[in-house]
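Entry type: protein chain
Record version: 2
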Amino acid sequence: MKIYTRTGDQGETGVIGGRVPKNSVRVEAYGTVDELNSFIGLAVSSMAEDRYSDMRADLLEIQHELFDCGADLATLHARSYKVEASMTDRLEAAIDRYEKETSALSHFVLPGGSAAAAHLHISRTVCRRAERRVVELALQEEINIEVRTYLNRLSDFLFMLARAANAREGVEDIHYVRGGQVFRTRS
């Protein structure tokens, strides 16, 4: 199989159900999800297998789910979708699980700390951008809204995972010091 097809040489690409310009909001949305998936792969590569086996397994599952998000976003006409609410529910349960490893959050956290946390923070910011692209697409065309919800929760998950990675490394989160306490303590 040849990797090049030449079908995109005129500035269009194939999606499920037809062809669209390569600069369409739809392509931008699923392209940003693909970029996110690559950054998550980079984050995984920075995590020692022994210390991060659970996180690595969660992130591998998320990488598969991001392909599902991309497939749903690359679909022009409504059909059965791959992304379901249960995927977001699983993220919420994981957020709660990893939060137990971290200290109470009282201030904004600057991206950084350990290498793994820094990579996860980059993934989080790309996830937020992907979410913005999906919101823009949803204003213009029909999409699977579960993708938007999933990406919103995924950014929360990546934030919590970054904090948990720092905790596992014994590295303090870097607090934003030019502001006051902005979060209430846990109950």
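Comment: The domain at 21-100+108-175 is CATH 1.20.1200.10 (Hypothetical Protein Ta1238; Chain: A;).
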